Amino acid sequence: MTSTPLRFRPLLKQTIWGGRRLGEMLKKPIGDADDYAESWEIVDHGEDQSVVTDGELAGKSLGDLFATQRSWLMGSAWVEANPDAKTFPLLLKFLDCNRVLSVQVHPDDAYGATMQPPDLGKTEAWVILHSEPDSVIYSGLKAGVDRESLREMMVAGETDRALHSYHPEVGDCVFIPAGTVHALGGGLVVAEIQQSSNTTFRLFDWNRLDASGNSRPLHVEQSLDVSDYERGPVDPIRKPLASGTDDLVSCDKFVLRRVHQSSPTIAGDDQCHLVTVIDGSATLVSGDEVTQLSTGESVLIPAVSGEMQMESKEATCLWMTPPSGSTT
After folding, report:
1. What residue stretches are annotated with the Phosphomannose isomerase type I catalytic domain (predicted)?
2. What is the topology classification, in CATH, of domain 6-226?
């Protein structure tokens, strides 16, 4: 089978909080629409499937490849450590937030396994690609907020009083482990790497009503059960943009790095790699084979691939891997 980087057709999602920036900034095929909120770049979650666009595997879904070619895709160490894994473990997406999103919290793997149907927990990280002057991120609970005080604020419709918040800058990275209460504010475009999961509980929707005067349901007890009351306020990881490779997040679910105007060697290590270009143009070079990537394009490099040079002297890229041998 091929060892070349896999390109996938993005899955575009429309919601009332979307806009046009996925098309304008990241060159996604949104046409004249102005309500595209998410572009799922690499995903294997139920009916949401990335499909290979070209080469000998064209038409194959990521789920098919994970089910039938797991060692080729993930590497032998990962497969040995995760014998019961049912899906590709990571989901890569872009989000365009034209208004503040609901306040949410995600459970960990143990809680997710008890749900019907079972799912993974959800640890995630954001990299800020665009921020308006009045944009806000809400991440973590203020110091001293415990289960009972959070319950009181939720019932009173005042959950925002519990939330740590700040203005994000372009280039910031925000790490959101499972259990961290959070919300993305309006005017933000972010790249997100997360576990392949859809386990979300809503604490607060800013007391908004729909056209019929109804509010969206809240998940009070589930949110209180899974929230982390020990972590406290979560501030951004803020590293100046400089030539080279910056390690942004390293946890038991993924490793996230930023590559700017440099040419690191990647792959050739028996694990899969995900690469997305967030600004400029880059190439992946393996012998005589060259893969060109422009802004907004993403690829998955199978574990079987040999070493490649990521030439990003004219670009800023995000480079992600599941930790070798770790459990999902």
Report:
1. 8-114
2. Jelly Rolls (2.60.120)
Indicate if the pLDDT at residue 327 is higher than 60.
no
Burial class (CB in 10 A: 0-12, 13-18, 19+), 233: middle
Tokens representing residue 145 in the block: 């907020």
Q: What is the mean pLDDT of residues 94-98?
A: 98
Neighbours of 294 (CB within 10 A): 13
pLDDT per position as a tens digit, 17-26: 999 999 999 9
Could you write out the DSSP letters of every residue in 84-122?
Answer: T--S-SEEEEEEEESSPPPEEE---HHHHTTSSS-----
- CA–CA gap between residue 144 and residue 127 (Å, rounded): 28
* Architecture label for domain 244-321: Sandwich (2.60)
Cα dihedral angle (232, 226, 158, 126), rounded to 10 degrees?
60
Does residue 43 sit in helix, strand or coil?
Answer: coil
Question: Catalytic positions, please?
Answer: 202
Decide: 248 and 256 in contact? Cβ < 8 Å. Answer: yes
How many Cβ atoms from other residues are within 10 Å of residue 247's Cβ? 12
Helix, strand, coil percentages in the chain from 3-state DSSP, rounded to 5: 15, 40, 45
Instruction: Specify whether the CB–CB gap between 310 and 264 falls below 8 A.
Output: yes
Q: Is residue 33's pLDDT more than 80?
A: yes
Give Cβ neighbours of residue 72 (< 8 Å, ≥ 6 apart). Answer: 1, 65, 302, 303, 304
6-226 shares its CATH topology with 244-321: yes
Under a CB-based contact definition with an 8 Å cutoff, are residues 6 and 302 in contact? yes
Q: Name the amino acid, one letter, at 36.
A: Y
CA 145 vs CA 180, 220, 228, 283: distances in Å: 13, 15, 10, 47
What is the residue extent of each domain of the chain?
Answer: 6-226, 244-321
